[in-house]
Amino acid sequence: MTNPVTDSIRECKLIYNTAVKNESAMILLRSKLAAVSTRLGFPDPKRENIALVASEIVSNQIKYAEGKGMIQIWQQPGPALDIFALDFGPGIPDLRAAEADGFSTANTLGKGLGSIHRLSDQACLYSRQEASGPVRRWSGTAVLARFLPGARNRDEAQASNTPFNIGLYSRALSDDRFCGDRVYLHRDGTKLRWLHLDGLGHGEEAEKSTANLAALLPRCSGPAALLGAVDKELRHTRGAVAIAGEADAGSRSLEIIGVGDMHAHFFEQEQCHSFSFAPGVLGKEHKSTASSRLKFDQHGLIITASDGIRRNWDTSNFPGLFHGHPQLIAYLLGNIMARISDDQSLCVVRQNQ
Question: What is the pTM of this model?
Answer without folding.
Answer: 0.93
